[in-house]
């Protein structure tokens, strides 16, 4: 049995890649499972990587709970994304050609990472996710017009619409361009419209 939290990888070697895509999985899933999503938006010159959570869960409680209740998982998850961003940058892929994607818990970590580390990215996409904590604040910096995609059901059992709206407001305050899409009655999952958006984004990176 493999215990190491090794990231899963696909596509080009980062040193040979023009663009990078980091995919962060949800609760109970694996790096390998979300990496399969890369087949939906293939690019020969793209390096794909997905961090792996300990026991397949990034943090124990709802992302709406006080931050300290989800430590150290939250901090470890943010660090796992940061390691991959840093690896891509060191390999020669600039941040503005790195796309950050996450689903569910991974979507929450992805938005939190981008808002805590504002810069120009190739894009940020949270599929059923939002910023973490019971009291959102302390975000400052400049996203330099990075497009942030927020896709979620209007009746998601885990992600309240209010949190998606709050996440939109905070990213706009960080000078991001937000594309928010609320899907009627969808439940907790990823739909074809979201995949179409990601295909277009990866093509344009």
TrEMBL record:
Entry's Gene Ontology molecular function annotations: hydrolase activity
Record's keyword terms, sorted: Hydrolase
Residue intervals of the Phospholipase/carboxylesterase/thioesterase domain: 20-200
InterPro entries: AB_hydrolase_fold, LYPA1-2/EST-like, PLipase/COase/thioEstase
Family membership noted in the UniProt record: Belongs to the AB hydrolase superfamily. AB hydrolase 2 family.
Name of the protein described by the UniProt record: Phospholipase
The organism of origin for this protein: Halosegnis rubeus
